[in-house]
């Protein structure tokens, strides 16, 4: 009884103030439009992606996120266009959100080996709090739960919270390395459910980088999708408000298979005394065949929450269509394939 009331109290505070952190994906390169708007059109062909994540499935207050994206490269304009829809459901209170973002990127060939992509995005977000299934104080008496409907104003629900949202990013890359930075919620939209308070969504910044090291005679030449053999160490650091997170991992690609392992946490930084900041070990298996890719990853929780949370399951799907043919140009083409992993 006490635990239930405490959970209700904490949930109500969260609902009034809104969210402070974005949903996250472990296969962030399999969801390129969510990671960095500069990656729109990065496949140099029309592409469709679907990502699904279920975090802490063993708990009733789990997090389920689905993302659907599509992007295209316009070779005559060295530009990419993308659209991304992200749907998220959080916890017992059915805190639901839907975000729709439109993206534009421009690709610049700096020299024979290095290219730069710049990206911007603008979108619309809607937040909804569904009180169905929750109980309120006026539904209890000395005998326990009365079973009567609540007359609490919060139990009647409230209007959705809607706002515009903007972001930007860039990516520098060659055949053997990449480094990018992105920033989301640049306008810091207000996402509070209560009109008497304000909850500005913190800006989320992230830095992504890695190396692509060939082996077994692979030279980056020819049809990479058929014969790629690379090792890719990579890192990502992101910060949103007072929270930050560091990921470090390694991909091994021997077409058509991709295997990966990641560590998430900041071991030298403690949020509370005597509590280590370890979050998860992530294991990934992916398969790429022609234009189709599928990946599965599992987050093994190593934080104080423990394995009883059920970790996190994530599935990604991607399909790349035939590229758009460009008109002949006198000047040198600026097209260059992104070296980022596909998962």
Provide the fold topology.
Blueprint: H1 2-17, H2 32-35, E1 47-55, E2 63-74, E3 79-90, E4 95-109, E5 115-129, E6 140-141, E7 144-145, E8 161-173, E9 177-184, E10 204-211, E11 213-214, H3 224-227, E12 229-240, E13 243-254, E14 257-265, E15 278-289, E16 292-301, E17 312-320
Antiparallel strand pairs: 1-2, 1-17, 2-3, 3-4, 4-5, 5-8, 6-7, 8-9, 9-10, 10-12, 11-12, 12-13, 13-14, 14-15, 15-16, 16-17
Question: In words, what does this structure look like?
Answer:
Keywords: Signal. It comes from Dyadobacter psychrophilus. With 343 residues, the protein is mainly β. It has one domain (2-140, 159-320): monomeric porin ompg (Porin, Beta Barrel), CATH 2.40.160. It has helices at residues 2-17, 32-35, 224-227, and strands spanning 47-55, 63-74, 79-90, 95-109, 115-129, 140-141, 144-145, 161-173, 177-184, 204-211, 213-214, 229-240, 243-254, 257-265, 278-289, 292-301, 312-320. The strands form two sheets. The chain has a 14-stranded antiparallel β-barrel. Strands 6-7 form a two-stranded antiparallel ribbon. Strand 12 and strand 13 form a beta hairpin. The protein is globular and about 75 Å long. 32% of the residues are buried.
